[in-house]
Design goal:
single chain; UDP N-Acetylglucosamine Acyltransferase, domain 1; seven-stranded parallel beta sheet; six-stranded parallel beta sheet; about 5% helix
Length: about 180
């Protein structure tokens, strides 16, 4: 029996992971699941080498049937993260359902409170290399997020978004700012 499978069996015994029998795990998957936290892996899920699951108390991570998580993906949950069936997360994608309340830029980060909101990735959605999805964002079914994009707002079903912050190609930047080239 391989080491990843033994670790998974130990987590199942402590009721922190519920996994179908045909889940495939890469080497070096990190399971940091607090008591009361839960990870659910449905039929046919593949978790790449070096993926990290950091799940807080009473938090839930649900990965739907046939979903694929590439190498080095990080799922950071204090509330809820859901990855839809047949979704594809390329290597080094980050899904985080919490962050600092940075509205007051004068407050040091260590004094800012944490805010949480669920992250939802729809069926057959594709998140390309090193994409980041911030708290409270829903990536619709069949949507695609470009490589190294940072998703700060909901993505409609079937849409393509790219950039930092992510938006449809050719869409104006947030806030109506227009950048002009100097001559």
């Amino acid at each position: 029996m391989s080491r990843p499978r033994r670790v998974l069996l130990g987590l199942r015994a402590r009721r922190r992971v519920v996994a179908a029998a045909d889940v495939r795990l890469g080497r070096g998957v990190v399971w940091d699941i607090a008591p009361g936290g839960l990870v659910v892996l449905a039929d046919g899920v593949a978790v790449g080498a070096g993926c990290r699951f950091h799940v807080g108390r009473a938090a839930r991570v649900v990965v739907g049937a046939g979903a694929r998580l590439g190498e080095g993906c990080a799922l950071l949950a204090r509330e809820r993260i859901e990855v839809g069936a047949s979704a594809l997360l390329a290597p080094h994608v980050v899904l985080a359902d919490f962050g600092h309340d940075a509205r007051d830029v004068e407050t040091p980060v260590r004094l800012q409170r944490l805010v949480t909101a669920p992250v939802l990735v729809g069926r057959r959605a594709i998140l390309d290399l090193a994409a980041v999805v911030e708290p409270g964002v829903t990536v619709g079914p069949g949507a695609r997020v470009g490589a190294r994009s940072v998703v700060t707002a909901d993505v409609p079903a079937g849409a393509l978004v790219v950039g930092v912050p992510a938006r449809a190609p050719g869409a104006p930047p947030p806030g109506g700012l227009r950048l002009e080239r100097r001559r």
